[in-house]
Amino acid sequence: MDRRLRSIVIVGGGTAGWMSAAALAKVCGRQNLDITLVESEQIGTVGVGEATIPAIQQFNKLIEIDEDEFVRETKATFKLGIEFVDWRRLGHSYFHQFGLIGAAIDKGVSFSDYWLRWVAEGGGGADPDILQFNAETVAARLGKFGRSLPTDRAGLPAINYAFQFDASLYAAFLRRFAEKRGVRRVEGKIVDVHRNGESGFIEAVELAGGKRIPGDFFLDCSGFRGLLIEGEMKAGFEDWSHWLPCDRAAAMPCERVEDPTPFTRSTAREAGWQWRIPLQHRTGNGYVFSSQYLSEDEAATRLAERVDGPAIADPKILRFTAGQRKRNWIKNCLAVGLSSGFLEPLESTSIHLVQAAVTKFLDFFPDRDCNPDLVDRFNVEMHRAYEPIRDFLIAHYKVTERDDTPFWAYCKNMSIPDSLQDRLDLFRARGNALPQFNDLFREGSWFAVLWGQGIRPQSYHAIANAMPEDQLLITLKNVRAAIQERVDAMPSHETFLERCCGPSSAVPVSR
After folding, report:
1. In the predicted model, is pLDDT for residue 152 greater than 60?
2. Which end of the chain is more exposed for a tag (fewer CB within 10 A), N or C?
3. In angstroms, rounded to a whole number, what is the distance separating the alpha carbons of residues 298 and 150?
4. Strand segments (E) across 290-398
5. Within a 13 Å sphere around the CA of 244, how many CA atoms are in the beta-carbon half?
6. SS3 of 205, please?
Protein backbone atom coordinates (compact mmCIF):
# COMPACT_ATOMS: atom_id res chain seq x y z
CA MET A 1 0.00 0.00 0.00
CA ASP A 2 1.25 3.48 -0.89
CA ARG A 3 1.91 5.26 2.43
CA ARG A 4 3.47 8.43 1.04
CA LEU A 5 2.26 11.77 2.40
CA ARG A 6 -0.24 13.33 0.03
CA SER A 7 -1.30 16.37 2.03
CA ILE A 8 0.32 18.65 4.60
CA VAL A 9 -1.57 21.28 6.55
CA ILE A 10 0.34 24.22 8.01
CA VAL A 11 -1.49 25.83 10.91
CA GLY A 12 -0.52 29.49 11.14
CA GLY A 13 1.24 31.92 8.83
CA GLY A 14 3.83 34.51 9.76
CA THR A 15 7.51 33.81 9.34
CA ALA A 16 7.39 30.18 10.51
CA GLY A 17 4.36 29.23 8.46
CA TRP A 18 5.46 30.77 5.21
CA MET A 19 9.09 29.59 5.56
CA SER A 20 7.69 26.08 5.97
CA ALA A 21 5.36 26.49 3.02
CA ALA A 22 8.08 27.90 0.76
CA ALA A 23 10.57 25.15 1.56
CA LEU A 24 8.04 22.34 1.18
CA ALA A 25 6.71 23.75 -2.07
CA LYS A 26 10.21 24.09 -3.51
CA VAL A 27 11.61 20.75 -2.36
CA CYS A 28 8.50 18.54 -2.52
CA GLY A 29 6.52 20.31 -5.20
CA ARG A 30 6.93 17.56 -7.79
CA GLN A 31 5.65 14.74 -5.60
CA ASN A 32 1.91 15.41 -5.96
CA LEU A 33 1.90 16.85 -2.43
CA ASP A 34 -0.99 19.11 -1.52
CA ILE A 35 0.13 21.90 0.85
CA THR A 36 -2.47 24.02 2.62
CA LEU A 37 -1.74 26.89 5.00
CA VAL A 38 -4.48 28.01 7.38
CA GLU A 39 -4.21 31.42 9.01
CA SER A 40 -6.53 34.02 10.44
CA GLU A 41 -6.12 37.73 9.91
CA GLN A 42 -8.00 38.19 13.20
CA ILE A 43 -5.20 36.53 15.15
CA GLY A 44 -2.25 38.17 13.42
CA THR A 45 1.42 37.33 13.96
CA VAL A 46 4.13 38.19 16.46
CA GLY A 47 6.63 39.53 13.90
CA VAL A 48 7.90 43.01 14.74
CA GLY A 49 11.11 43.04 12.72
CA GLU A 50 13.77 40.44 12.40
CA ALA A 51 17.53 40.25 12.55
CA THR A 52 19.13 37.03 11.35
CA ILE A 53 22.40 35.12 11.35
CA PRO A 54 24.39 33.95 8.29
CA ALA A 55 22.72 30.54 8.20
CA ILE A 56 19.74 32.18 6.49
CA GLN A 57 21.82 32.22 3.31
CA GLN A 58 21.55 28.42 3.29
CA PHE A 59 17.75 28.68 3.38
CA ASN A 60 17.77 31.22 0.54
CA LYS A 61 19.91 28.83 -1.50
CA LEU A 62 17.62 25.91 -0.66
CA ILE A 63 14.58 27.65 -2.13
CA GLU A 64 16.69 29.36 -4.80
CA ILE A 65 15.62 32.97 -4.37
CA ASP A 66 17.47 35.92 -5.84
CA GLU A 67 19.22 37.77 -3.02
CA ASP A 68 18.85 41.26 -4.52
CA GLU A 69 15.12 40.68 -5.03
CA PHE A 70 14.85 39.43 -1.45
CA VAL A 71 16.62 42.54 -0.15
CA ARG A 72 14.38 44.84 -2.19
CA GLU A 73 11.11 43.14 -1.29
CA THR A 74 11.74 42.92 2.47
CA LYS A 75 13.38 46.39 2.87
CA ALA A 76 16.38 44.50 4.19
CA THR A 77 19.77 45.75 5.24
CA PHE A 78 22.93 43.69 5.63
CA LYS A 79 24.24 42.55 9.00
CA LEU A 80 27.84 41.80 9.96
CA GLY A 81 27.30 41.19 13.67
CA ILE A 82 25.87 42.60 16.90
CA GLU A 83 27.18 45.47 19.00
CA PHE A 84 26.69 44.92 22.76
CA VAL A 85 26.54 48.13 24.80
CA ASP A 86 26.67 48.26 28.63
CA TRP A 87 26.57 44.47 29.05
CA ARG A 88 29.88 43.96 30.81
CA ARG A 89 29.62 47.26 32.64
CA LEU A 90 28.10 50.69 32.04
CA GLY A 91 30.05 52.58 29.42
CA HIS A 92 31.63 49.46 27.88
CA SER A 93 30.84 47.96 24.48
CA TYR A 94 32.03 45.05 22.38
CA PHE A 95 31.14 43.39 19.09
CA HIS A 96 30.04 39.84 18.32
CA GLN A 97 31.19 39.40 14.77
CA PHE A 98 30.10 37.10 12.02
CA GLY A 99 32.88 35.19 10.32
CA LEU A 100 36.15 33.77 11.53
CA ILE A 101 38.75 35.72 13.44
CA GLY A 102 42.13 36.07 11.73
CA ALA A 103 43.27 33.53 9.17
CA ALA A 104 44.30 29.91 9.02
CA ILE A 105 47.83 29.53 10.42
CA ASP A 106 48.41 25.96 11.63
CA LYS A 107 46.10 22.97 11.78
CA GLY A 108 44.90 22.22 15.29
CA VAL A 109 45.74 25.65 16.70
CA SER A 110 43.32 28.53 16.29
CA PHE A 111 44.27 32.08 15.41
CA SER A 112 43.03 33.21 18.83
CA ASP A 113 45.68 31.06 20.54
CA TYR A 114 48.44 32.83 18.63
CA TRP A 115 46.82 36.15 19.46
CA LEU A 116 46.63 35.23 23.17
CA ARG A 117 50.31 34.37 23.10
CA TRP A 118 51.04 37.77 21.52
CA VAL A 119 48.98 39.51 24.22
CA ALA A 120 50.72 37.54 26.98
CA GLU A 121 54.05 38.77 25.57
CA GLY A 122 52.93 42.40 25.77
CA GLY A 123 51.18 42.90 22.44
CA GLY A 124 47.92 44.79 21.94
CA GLY A 125 48.33 47.45 24.61
CA ALA A 126 46.23 47.93 27.72
CA ASP A 127 42.96 46.91 26.03
CA PRO A 128 43.85 44.40 23.29
CA ASP A 129 41.27 44.04 20.53
CA ILE A 130 41.24 40.73 18.68
CA LEU A 131 38.50 41.95 16.36
CA GLN A 132 40.88 44.19 14.46
CA PHE A 133 41.69 40.81 12.88
CA ASN A 134 38.11 40.28 11.72
CA ALA A 135 37.02 41.88 8.45
CA GLU A 136 33.32 41.92 9.39
CA THR A 137 34.02 43.94 12.54
CA VAL A 138 36.36 46.39 10.83
CA ALA A 139 33.79 46.93 8.07
CA ALA A 140 30.92 47.33 10.55
CA ARG A 141 32.83 49.95 12.53
CA LEU A 142 33.35 51.94 9.33
CA GLY A 143 29.78 51.50 8.08
CA LYS A 144 30.94 49.48 5.07
CA PHE A 145 29.73 46.30 3.42
CA GLY A 146 30.76 43.93 0.64
CA ARG A 147 29.56 40.47 -0.32
CA SER A 148 31.58 37.31 0.19
CA LEU A 149 34.85 37.01 -1.64
CA PRO A 150 36.89 33.89 -2.38
CA THR A 151 39.65 33.05 0.08
CA ASP A 152 42.62 35.18 -0.95
CA ARG A 153 46.39 34.86 -0.75
CA ALA A 154 46.44 35.76 2.94
CA GLY A 155 44.14 32.83 3.79
CA LEU A 156 41.32 35.11 4.90
CA PRO A 157 37.87 33.52 4.98
CA ALA A 158 34.99 34.85 2.88
CA ILE A 159 32.90 37.72 4.24
CA ASN A 160 30.09 36.28 6.37
CA TYR A 161 26.84 38.21 6.63
CA ALA A 162 23.14 38.02 7.39
CA PHE A 163 20.15 40.35 7.02
CA GLN A 164 17.90 42.67 8.96
CA PHE A 165 14.43 42.86 7.44
CA ASP A 166 10.76 43.65 7.98
CA ALA A 167 9.16 40.41 9.21
CA SER A 168 5.74 41.17 7.75
CA LEU A 169 7.26 41.90 4.35
CA TYR A 170 9.35 38.72 4.60
CA ALA A 171 6.23 36.62 5.28
CA ALA A 172 4.46 38.30 2.35
CA PHE A 173 7.47 37.66 0.09
CA LEU A 174 7.52 33.97 1.01
CA ARG A 175 3.75 33.77 0.63
CA ARG A 176 3.98 34.97 -2.99
CA PHE A 177 6.82 32.51 -3.57
CA ALA A 178 4.87 29.59 -2.07
CA GLU A 179 1.51 30.34 -3.69
CA LYS A 180 3.19 30.60 -7.09
CA ARG A 181 4.35 27.00 -6.50
CA GLY A 182 0.96 25.65 -5.56
CA VAL A 183 0.50 26.29 -1.84
CA ARG A 184 -3.14 26.99 -1.02
CA ARG A 185 -3.94 29.55 1.68
CA VAL A 186 -7.18 29.24 3.65
CA GLU A 187 -8.44 32.12 5.77
CA GLY A 188 -10.09 31.08 9.01
CA LYS A 189 -9.88 30.54 12.72
CA ILE A 190 -9.44 26.96 13.93
CA VAL A 191 -12.03 26.01 16.54
CA ASP A 192 -11.57 22.25 16.75
CA VAL A 193 -9.08 19.48 16.04
CA HIS A 194 -10.20 16.02 14.94
CA ARG A 195 -8.06 12.98 15.81
CA ASN A 196 -8.29 9.31 14.98
CA GLY A 197 -9.66 7.44 18.00
CA GLU A 198 -7.29 4.51 17.56
CA SER A 199 -3.99 5.97 16.34
CA GLY A 200 -4.26 9.41 17.96
CA PHE A 201 -3.14 10.99 14.68
CA ILE A 202 -4.70 14.32 13.70
CA GLU A 203 -7.10 13.87 10.79
CA ALA A 204 -8.39 17.41 10.26
CA VAL A 205 -8.74 20.87 11.73
CA GLU A 206 -12.13 22.55 11.79
CA LEU A 207 -12.68 26.25 11.15
CA ALA A 208 -15.34 28.55 12.53
CA GLY A 209 -18.34 27.92 10.32
CA GLY A 210 -17.76 24.18 10.18
CA LYS A 211 -15.29 23.80 7.30
CA ARG A 212 -12.85 20.92 7.80
CA ILE A 213 -9.29 20.90 6.46
CA PRO A 214 -8.06 17.29 6.33
CA GLY A 215 -4.40 16.31 6.08
CA ASP A 216 -1.88 13.49 6.40
CA PHE A 217 0.56 15.64 8.36
CA PHE A 218 0.26 18.89 10.32
CA LEU A 219 2.84 21.59 10.99
CA ASP A 220 2.01 23.71 14.03
CA CYS A 221 3.13 27.28 13.27
CA SER A 222 0.55 28.84 15.58
CA GLY A 223 3.07 30.75 17.68
CA PHE A 224 3.26 30.81 21.47
CA ARG A 225 -0.19 29.18 21.73
CA GLY A 226 1.05 25.86 20.36
CA LEU A 227 -2.49 25.18 19.23
CA LEU A 228 -1.77 21.63 18.08
CA ILE A 229 1.48 20.55 19.74
CA GLU A 230 0.42 21.68 23.22
CA GLY A 231 -3.29 22.39 23.06
CA GLU A 232 -4.09 19.04 21.45
CA MET A 233 -1.01 16.79 21.72
CA LYS A 234 0.06 17.86 25.26
CA ALA A 235 3.79 17.92 24.47
CA GLY A 236 4.79 19.56 27.75
CA PHE A 237 7.17 22.48 28.20
CA GLU A 238 10.65 22.74 29.68
CA ASP A 239 10.83 26.12 31.42
CA TRP A 240 14.22 27.88 31.29
CA SER A 241 13.10 31.21 32.77
CA HIS A 242 15.23 30.75 35.91
CA TRP A 243 18.26 31.13 33.59
CA LEU A 244 16.69 33.50 31.07
CA PRO A 245 14.43 35.65 33.26
CA CYS A 246 13.21 38.11 30.61
CA ASP A 247 9.56 37.29 29.87
CA ARG A 248 8.25 40.41 28.11
CA ALA A 249 9.13 42.64 25.20
CA ALA A 250 7.87 46.08 24.28
CA ALA A 251 8.34 46.69 20.54
CA MET A 252 8.01 49.97 18.66
CA PRO A 253 9.26 51.07 15.23
CA CYS A 254 10.51 54.58 14.61
CA GLU A 255 11.48 56.66 11.61
CA ARG A 256 14.90 56.27 10.08
CA VAL A 257 17.20 59.08 11.23
CA GLU A 258 20.52 58.03 9.67
CA ASP A 259 21.94 55.69 7.07
CA PRO A 260 21.33 52.14 8.34
CA THR A 261 24.24 50.47 10.08
CA PRO A 262 25.35 47.02 8.89
CA PHE A 263 24.81 45.58 12.37
CA THR A 264 22.22 45.19 15.12
CA ARG A 265 22.70 46.90 18.47
CA SER A 266 21.81 45.45 21.87
CA THR A 267 21.98 47.85 24.80
CA ALA A 268 21.69 46.47 28.33
CA ARG A 269 19.05 48.29 30.40
CA GLU A 270 17.98 48.23 34.03
CA ALA A 271 15.79 45.12 33.69
CA GLY A 272 16.85 43.57 30.40
CA TRP A 273 18.05 44.99 27.09
CA GLN A 274 16.99 47.11 24.14
CA TRP A 275 17.34 46.12 20.48
CA ARG A 276 17.90 48.42 17.54
CA ILE A 277 17.43 46.92 14.06
CA PRO A 278 18.01 49.36 11.16
CA LEU A 279 16.00 48.67 8.00
CA GLN A 280 15.87 50.56 4.72
CA HIS A 281 12.66 52.40 5.57
CA ARG A 282 12.57 52.52 9.36
CA THR A 283 14.27 51.36 12.54
CA GLY A 284 12.96 48.50 14.68
CA ASN A 285 13.24 48.94 18.45
CA GLY A 286 12.31 46.80 21.41
CA TYR A 287 12.88 46.43 25.13
CA VAL A 288 13.19 42.80 26.29
CA PHE A 289 12.67 42.79 30.05
CA SER A 290 11.71 40.82 33.13
CA SER A 291 8.25 41.63 34.48
CA GLN A 292 9.55 40.71 37.94
CA TYR A 293 11.70 43.84 37.89
CA LEU A 294 9.84 46.24 35.60
CA SER A 295 6.17 46.72 34.72
CA GLU A 296 4.88 46.66 31.16
CA ASP A 297 3.86 50.33 31.32
CA GLU A 298 7.27 51.36 32.62
CA ALA A 299 9.04 49.37 29.93
CA ALA A 300 6.90 50.90 27.17
CA THR A 301 7.51 54.40 28.51
CA ARG A 302 11.26 53.94 28.77
CA LEU A 303 11.47 52.44 25.29
CA ALA A 304 9.57 55.40 23.83
CA GLU A 305 11.99 57.78 25.55
CA ARG A 306 15.07 55.99 24.21
CA VAL A 307 14.40 55.46 20.50
CA ASP A 308 16.37 57.69 18.16
CA GLY A 309 13.57 58.87 15.87
CA PRO A 310 9.85 59.79 15.84
CA ALA A 311 7.70 56.77 16.67
CA ILE A 312 5.67 55.18 13.88
CA ALA A 313 3.39 53.16 16.18
CA ASP A 314 2.62 52.74 19.87
CA PRO A 315 4.60 50.15 21.84
CA LYS A 316 3.34 46.59 21.44
CA ILE A 317 3.73 44.21 24.39
CA LEU A 318 4.69 40.59 23.81
CA ARG A 319 4.61 37.98 26.58
CA PHE A 320 6.65 34.77 26.56
CA THR A 321 8.48 32.17 28.61
CA ALA A 322 11.95 30.99 27.68
CA GLY A 323 12.08 27.26 27.09
CA GLN A 324 11.32 24.42 24.72
CA ARG A 325 8.61 21.83 24.18
CA LYS A 326 9.59 18.50 25.65
CA ARG A 327 8.66 17.00 22.30
CA ASN A 328 8.59 18.97 19.06
CA TRP A 329 7.16 16.11 17.00
CA ILE A 330 4.31 13.87 18.20
CA LYS A 331 2.64 11.37 15.85
CA ASN A 332 1.78 13.39 12.70
CA CYS A 333 2.18 16.84 14.28
CA LEU A 334 5.39 18.88 14.21
CA ALA A 335 5.92 22.24 15.91
CA VAL A 336 7.88 24.91 14.04
CA GLY A 337 8.92 28.33 15.32
CA LEU A 338 7.44 29.81 18.48
CA SER A 339 5.12 26.84 18.96
CA SER A 340 8.21 24.65 19.48
CA GLY A 341 9.88 26.91 22.02
CA PHE A 342 11.28 30.37 22.57
CA LEU A 343 14.75 31.75 23.07
CA GLU A 344 14.83 35.51 23.33
CA PRO A 345 16.17 37.38 20.26
CA LEU A 346 19.46 38.44 21.87
CA GLU A 347 21.55 36.59 19.26
CA SER A 348 18.96 36.65 16.46
CA THR A 349 18.36 32.90 16.48
CA SER A 350 14.57 32.76 16.03
CA ILE A 351 14.61 32.52 12.24
CA HIS A 352 17.45 30.01 12.41
CA LEU A 353 15.44 27.70 14.68
CA VAL A 354 12.54 27.82 12.23
CA GLN A 355 14.97 27.01 9.44
CA ALA A 356 16.55 24.19 11.47
CA ALA A 357 13.18 22.56 12.12
CA VAL A 358 12.04 22.84 8.50
CA THR A 359 15.26 21.54 6.95
CA LYS A 360 15.52 18.75 9.51
CA PHE A 361 11.92 17.79 8.75
CA LEU A 362 12.87 17.55 5.09
CA ASP A 363 15.81 15.33 6.07
CA PHE A 364 13.51 13.13 8.16
CA PHE A 365 10.55 13.38 5.77
CA PRO A 366 8.13 10.63 6.88
CA ASP A 367 5.39 8.60 5.35
CA ARG A 368 1.87 8.58 6.80
CA ASP A 369 2.90 6.14 9.54
CA CYS A 370 5.53 8.51 11.02
CA ASN A 371 7.99 5.88 12.24
CA PRO A 372 8.43 6.39 16.03
CA ASP A 373 12.20 5.91 15.82
CA LEU A 374 12.39 8.70 13.26
CA VAL A 375 10.25 10.95 15.45
CA ASP A 376 12.33 10.25 18.56
CA ARG A 377 15.57 11.01 16.70
CA PHE A 378 14.16 14.31 15.43
CA ASN A 379 13.19 15.34 18.96
CA VAL A 380 16.66 14.50 20.29
CA GLU A 381 18.34 16.52 17.56
CA MET A 382 16.12 19.55 18.08
CA HIS A 383 16.99 19.52 21.79
CA ARG A 384 20.63 19.39 20.78
CA ALA A 385 20.00 22.46 18.63
CA TYR A 386 18.28 24.47 21.38
CA GLU A 387 20.42 23.77 24.43
CA PRO A 388 23.79 25.12 23.22
CA ILE A 389 22.04 28.30 22.06
CA ARG A 390 20.40 28.54 25.48
CA ASP A 391 23.80 28.31 27.17
CA PHE A 392 25.29 30.93 24.86
CA LEU A 393 22.49 33.36 25.75
CA ILE A 394 22.80 32.69 29.48
CA ALA A 395 26.52 33.53 29.31
CA HIS A 396 25.70 37.10 28.27
CA TYR A 397 23.78 37.60 31.51
CA LYS A 398 25.92 35.56 33.89
CA VAL A 399 29.38 36.80 32.88
CA THR A 400 29.04 40.44 33.88
CA GLU A 401 30.48 42.96 36.29
CA ARG A 402 27.08 44.59 36.70
CA ASP A 403 25.11 44.39 39.92
CA ASP A 404 23.80 47.96 39.85
CA THR A 405 20.12 46.94 39.65
CA PRO A 406 18.20 44.04 41.22
CA PHE A 407 17.89 42.41 37.79
CA TRP A 408 21.62 42.43 37.11
CA ALA A 409 22.44 41.34 40.64
CA TYR A 410 20.21 38.31 40.10
CA CYS A 411 21.82 37.47 36.76
CA LYS A 412 25.37 37.83 38.07
CA ASN A 413 24.71 35.49 40.99
CA MET A 414 22.30 32.96 39.48
CA SER A 415 23.13 29.28 39.11
CA ILE A 416 23.79 28.07 35.56
CA PRO A 417 23.67 24.73 33.70
CA ASP A 418 26.66 22.46 34.20
CA SER A 419 27.16 22.45 30.43
CA LEU A 420 27.74 26.20 30.47
CA GLN A 421 29.91 26.10 33.59
CA ASP A 422 32.20 23.60 31.86
CA ARG A 423 32.65 25.96 28.91
CA LEU A 424 33.36 28.95 31.16
CA ASP A 425 35.93 27.00 33.17
CA LEU A 426 37.67 25.84 30.01
CA PHE A 427 37.72 29.33 28.54
CA ARG A 428 39.18 30.80 31.73
CA ALA A 429 41.86 28.13 31.68
CA ARG A 430 43.08 28.52 28.11
CA GLY A 431 40.77 30.57 25.92
CA ASN A 432 38.76 27.77 24.28
CA ALA A 433 35.09 26.90 24.61
CA LEU A 434 35.33 23.78 22.40
CA PRO A 435 31.86 23.76 20.82
CA GLN A 436 30.40 20.42 19.82
CA PHE A 437 30.35 19.53 16.14
CA ASN A 438 26.77 20.65 15.50
CA ASP A 439 26.70 23.70 17.78
CA LEU A 440 25.41 26.83 16.06
CA PHE A 441 27.91 29.16 17.71
CA ARG A 442 31.51 28.27 17.01
CA GLU A 443 34.77 29.10 18.75
CA GLY A 444 35.03 32.65 17.38
CA SER A 445 31.58 33.57 18.70
CA TRP A 446 32.31 32.23 22.17
CA PHE A 447 35.65 34.04 22.20
CA ALA A 448 34.14 37.38 21.18
CA VAL A 449 31.36 37.23 23.77
CA LEU A 450 33.31 35.82 26.72
CA TRP A 451 36.26 38.14 26.11
CA GLY A 452 33.84 41.03 25.58
CA GLN A 453 32.04 40.22 28.82
CA GLY A 454 35.34 40.33 30.69
CA ILE A 455 36.84 36.84 31.02
CA ARG A 456 40.62 36.82 30.51
CA PRO A 457 42.06 33.34 29.83
CA GLN A 458 44.97 32.28 32.02
CA SER A 459 46.78 30.54 29.16
CA TYR A 460 46.47 29.35 25.56
CA HIS A 461 47.20 26.29 23.40
CA ALA A 462 50.80 25.28 24.14
CA ILE A 463 51.63 24.56 20.49
CA ALA A 464 51.21 28.26 19.74
CA ASN A 465 54.62 28.69 21.39
CA ALA A 466 56.28 26.72 18.58
CA MET A 467 56.19 29.64 16.14
CA PRO A 468 59.26 31.91 16.29
CA GLU A 469 58.48 35.34 17.69
CA ASP A 470 59.52 37.25 14.57
CA GLN A 471 57.37 35.01 12.40
CA LEU A 472 54.39 35.53 14.71
CA LEU A 473 54.73 39.31 14.49
CA ILE A 474 55.02 39.21 10.71
CA THR A 475 52.00 36.89 10.45
CA LEU A 476 49.81 39.15 12.58
CA LYS A 477 50.94 42.21 10.66
CA ASN A 478 50.17 40.58 7.31
CA VAL A 479 46.72 39.39 8.38
CA ARG A 480 45.86 42.84 9.71
CA ALA A 481 47.04 44.48 6.50
CA ALA A 482 45.09 42.04 4.31
CA ILE A 483 41.91 42.72 6.29
CA GLN A 484 42.35 46.47 6.02
CA GLU A 485 42.98 46.17 2.29
CA ARG A 486 39.81 44.15 1.89
CA VAL A 487 37.70 46.61 3.88
CA ASP A 488 39.18 49.65 2.13
CA ALA A 489 37.85 48.23 -1.14
CA MET A 490 34.28 47.99 0.19
CA PRO A 491 31.66 50.67 -0.48
CA SER A 492 29.56 52.16 2.27
CA HIS A 493 26.63 50.05 3.41
CA GLU A 494 24.18 52.61 1.99
CA THR A 495 25.95 52.63 -1.38
CA PHE A 496 25.82 48.84 -1.52
CA LEU A 497 22.08 48.89 -0.76
CA GLU A 498 21.53 51.33 -3.61
CA ARG A 499 23.38 48.95 -5.94
CA CYS A 500 21.06 46.10 -4.86
CA CYS A 501 17.81 48.00 -4.80
CA GLY A 502 18.34 51.10 -6.92
CA PRO A 503 18.32 54.74 -5.79
CA SER A 504 14.72 54.40 -4.60
CA SER A 505 16.01 52.42 -1.61
CA ALA A 506 17.47 55.60 -0.15
CA VAL A 507 14.61 56.65 2.13
CA PRO A 508 14.86 60.27 3.29
CA VAL A 509 15.95 60.41 6.90
CA SER A 510 14.14 62.28 9.65
CA ARG A 511 16.25 65.08 11.04
Report:
1. no
2. N
3. 49
4. 316-319, 323-325, 329-330, 333-335, 341-342
5. 25
6. strand
